[in-house]
Design brief:
five-stranded parallel beta sheet; 6 helices; disordered N terminus; five-stranded antiparallel beta sheet; alpha/beta
Length: 280
């Protein structure tokens, strides 16, 4: 019988840091705190970006997306680059602004896609009393934006289940390879279908009563959003080597913080941007 030696390239210091982080992460998940005041959690100082910096947001972007302004146009290079990194935040409002900021930094021509929005009653009949401009401005969770700006070579996340057999599921991240008027061609970034070329059509999405609107909003748009950043809730199931946490808007609960932190496969590559909370 041949014995195989288990080769481990991690140093003893790296092992200890990984074990300490894993234990700390479990404490976060269980709601345990270690700050100076009850109910406060002390974050690892080396992971935190000083909140009083004038360019704190840029520091976060540069830490997670280094050299993005000079990123190669090669599809394979971009797929690997974007597959292993993302910035997470508690709310869509934070993410939308961040996504646009990073898209502006990415080389390439931007293309704008506008949705067709209508208000419907419970019977599916059009309601003409609401101006289209008002409907366009309504933000809905897990809905595409009315004005969706995209570039070839940028990452997007799918917001609906379209075809499970092809890997087009809610939460799938893709790299855009072509932009048409009625269809997007993309390459799946992660999972068992990684590398597959797929097509995403414009579809009609409708709101439900839980969205709190006094009518049904029907939006015809590509069911995607930019995925440089995503909400912490949307990131569930993702595994990332480089994780940024934009916590200028605080998380709702320790469980949400745990979800964001646990997306990272490599603890030293986590960067956290806070507001006025102590960085620990």
């Amino acid at each position: 019988m041949r014995l195989l030696k288990n080769c481990d390239n991690m140093s003893s210091q790296e092992k200890k840091e990984a074990e300490d982080f894993a234990k700390w992460l479990l404490d976060v998940g269980e709601g345990l705190t270690d700050g100076d005041e009850p109910g406060f959690l002390q974050l690892p100082q080396k992971c935190c970006i000083p909140p009083d910096s004038d360019d704190a947001v840029e520091q976060l972007i540069n830490a997670i997306y280094p050299d993005i302004k000079a990123l190669s146009s090669n599809e394979d290079v971009r797929c690997k680059y974007f597959a292993e990194r993302a910035i997470l935040a508690p709310r869509n409002a934070c993410i939308d602004e961040l996504n646009q900021k990073i898209l502006d930094m990415l080389p390439g021509d931007e293309k704008i896609f506008l949705s067709a929005d209508t208000a419907l009653d419970d019977d599916g009949q059009n309601i003409d009393t609401f101006p289209v401009e008002y409907l366009n401005k309504i933000p809905v969770t897990n809905f595409p934006l009315h004005k969706t700006a995209l570039k070839i070579g940028c990452p997007i996340i799918l917001l609906r289940n379209l075809d499970h057999t092809s890997g087009l599921c809610n939460g799938t991240r893709l790299l855009i390879t072509q932009l048409g008027e009625r269809v997007i061609e993309g390459k799946i970034l992660t999972g068992s279908h990684a590398g597959n070329i797929v097509f995403i059509p414009r579809i009609a999405l409708t709101t439900k009563s839980v969205n709190g609107l006094p009518f049904v909003l029907r939006r015809v748009q590509f069911p995607v959003r930019l995925a440089f950043g995503m909400t912490i809730n949307k990131s569930q199931g993702q595994s990332l080597k480089h994780v940024g946490l934009d916590l200028i808007t605080p998380v709702f609960a320790h469980g949400q913080l745990y979800t964001g932190l646990s997306r990272a496969t490599d603890a030293p590559n986590i960067r956290i941007l806070l507001d006025d909370s102590p960085a620990g």
